[in-house]
Design brief:
The complex is a heterodimer of chains A (about 280) and B (about 280). Chain A has about 280 residues and is mainly α. Chain A has twelve helices and two strands. Chain A is globular and about 70 Å long. The two termini of chain A are about 40 Å apart. Chain B contains eleven helices and no strands. The radius of gyration of chain B is 23 Å and the shape is globular. Chain B has a domain of about 170 residues: Orthogonal Bundle (MetI-like fold). Classes of the chains: A mainly alpha (about 280), B mainly alpha (about 280). Chains A and B meet through α1, α3, α4, α5 and α8 of A and α1, α3, α4, α5 and α6 of B.
């Protein structure tokens, strides 16, 4: 009996540690395959280099970093206010029938393959931008709009959870002071749920900066520093997605090095979000 | 100037309603458009024929089978490891360094972009373990990717089982193992299945990670070591290279229907689970 207990305990322990060793394995394999080229080119030249020409052995990813940052910021600017409003809607205003429709809809939004978003963006958003704002249409703006839609489920669900977690007394106290519903939301609920909302925004940004297939179709993928939001760009993710199919040798290493940069950005964002949510508890 | 609280209440309410309705509209616009264009394409031969002419003609049978195979491989691995990890977290650890490490790792895995999973799967499974572009490489990569989903939902389900269940089992002389298998697991099974179904959803929808690890072969996979493409990859290649818009719409419509069914099943499970544990 005792033996069986111990065996089962160690089986669970082994399963748990094998699961998390995946993270170590990913980290190690991405790093050992990308670091040699960074060492060869020099980290400054790699990160701040303006020219990406694998056929000439030039590996500078600065335009891609700019691409990722601008597209993601655009997505945050467009998506976060809408997402927070939707969360407020769900927790404060939605009639039960509508929220019964809304929640599964958001779930569906989260489940639709990202390629389908990209395709839809290519069919509707890109021509719309081309016709109304000018430029090629394939642009930072198009990518930001698609990503803004895609980060909504993350932003909405985490914000909603943090609003629902607030003690009922906050709301009652505010109402007892004679505040209107909106005053309660603005000056009691949103400030108290702030850390949850910040975590939601960070995780949303993480999703946006890591997304590949949706933006690969609408960004135009040109390796150049954009001058306006109507210019095409390439992001860190799409750089890997486009070239990994045929890359070999140092070119492939450079794509892994691009992966390292992406990986570091994501890990920092995740750790920050986890830190914020933990501190709140 | 101070705005009258009643006026600002009205403005805020209108804006919030507008945001919510806007999101619903966008979602329905996407779904209805894809279904409108794609549903007429779906018929028996579309589902059962192998793509011909790079996918211009014929159906998507091999992509459907590819999706099924890759997803199955992913589940066979992710389910035992995920559930085991969840049980270890919920039943065997206390708040402390071990739990913090496991949870940090699981949440970090959840945040890693799929393209990075693709890079990892390519260099580790395809090259290092020499499995080549294959069903197996794709499935293994997806297994790692859905692991955090299975862990998180299973752990929540296990924690939702009331402590009284465990106490009764212990008081009857049950050991910890017996308690887990006979008292906790049966009560958590619906919540755990929900996690598995969400994992299936992620596998079906994934493109970047599968593209780099399973290859893009159009023919029917004959073993775990044959290269294959999934429906999502097939759709991407058809749409991006403009091979056949009609078949692309058909594939996308089928994907959306699948995701919809998966979500409905997952929700039904959650509802039954929460109803039972009240």
């Amino acid at each position: 009996m005792k033996l069986k207990e111990n065996i089962s305990k160690y089986i669970f322990l082994t399963l748990a540690f094998s699961s998390i060793s995946a993270l170590a394995l990913i980290t190690v394999f991405i790093i050992i395959n990308g670091v040699p080229i960074i060492a060869e080119v020099g980290i400054i030249n790699f990160i701040f280099g303006m020219s990406w020409a694998p056929s000439h052995g030039e590996y500078g990813i600065f335009p891609m970093i700019i691409g990722s940052v601008t597209v993601t910021l655009g997505a945050a600017v467009l998506g976060v206010p809408i997402g927070v409003c939707c969360a407020i809607f769900l927790t404060e205003f939605a009639p039960p029938t509508l929220s019964k429709l809304f929640r599964p809809a958001i779930q569906l939004l989260a489940g639709i393959p990202s390629v389908v978003y990209g395709f839809w963006g290519l069919l509707f958003i890109v021509p719309f931008i081309r016709n109304f704002f000018g430029g090629p249409g394939l642009s930072i703006l198009a990518g930001s709009v698609i990503l803004a839609i895609m980060v909504l489920p993350t932003v909405i669900s985490i914000t909603e959870v943090s609003i629902l977690a607030l003690p009922k007394q906050y709301r009652e106290g505010a109402l007892a002071l004679g505040m209107t519903h909106w005053q309660t939301i603005r000056s009691v609920i949103l400030p108290s749920a702030k850390s949850g909302i910040v975590a939601a925004v960070i995780l949303g940004i993480g999703r946006a900066i890591g997304e590949t297939m949706a933006v690969i179709m609408v960004l135009g993928n040109a390796v150049a520093v954009p001058e306006s939001i109507l210019d095409p760009v390439r992001t860190l993710t799409t750089n890997i997605g486009i070239e990994m199919g045929y890359a070999s040798g140092t070119h492939r290493q450079a794509l892994f090095a691009t992966g390292i940069v992406l990986f570091i950005i994501i890990m920092v964002l995740n750790a920050t979000a986890q830190y914020i949510t933990r501190k709140k508890k | 100037m101070r705005i009258n609280p009643k006026v600002s209440e009205k403005i805020a309410k209108v804006l919030i309603w507008a945001a919510a309705l806007f999101v619903l509209t966008v979602l329905f616009a996407i779904i209805i458009y894809i279904l409108y264009k794609g549903l007429p394409m779906i018929n028996w031969s579309f589902l059962t024929e192998i793509p011909r002419n790079m996918g211009r003609d014929g159906g998507i049978a091999s992509a459907i089978v590819g999706t099924l195979l890759v997803t199955t491989v992913a589940l066979v691995l992710a389910v035992p490891f995920g559930i085991g990890t969840a049980f270890y977290l919920a039943e065997y650890t206390r708040e402390g360094i071990v739990r913090r490490i496991i949870r940090f790792s699981a949440e970090s895995l959840a945040g890693i972009p799929s393209i990075v999973y693709g890079l990892f799967g390519f260099i580790f499974f395809v090259m290092y373990l020499n499995l080549g572009w294959s069903v197996l490489s794709g499935g293994l990569t997806l297994a790692v990717m859905i692991l955090p989903t299975v862990i998180r939902t299973s752990e929540e389900a296990i924690r939702a089982v009331p402590d009284s269940y465990r106490e009764v089992s212990f008081s009857l002389g049950g050991t910890k193992w017996q308690t887990i298998i006979k008292a906790v697991f049966p009560s958590a099974i619906q919540g755990i299945s929900n996690g598995i179904i969400l994992g299936i959803g992620r596998c079906v929808a994934e493109t970047a990670a599968v593209m780099l690890t399973a290859g893009g072969a159009l023919r029917m996979a004959s073993s775990l070591f044959s290269p294959t493409r999934t429906m999502a990859v097939h759709f991407y290649i058809l749409a991006r290279e403009g091979i056949s818009m009609n078949n692309a719409y058909g594939t996308a419509a089928l994907l959306i229907i699948l995701i919809f069914i998966i979500n409905v099943v997952a929700n039904a499970l959650v509802n039954r689970f929460t109803a039972k544990n009240k």
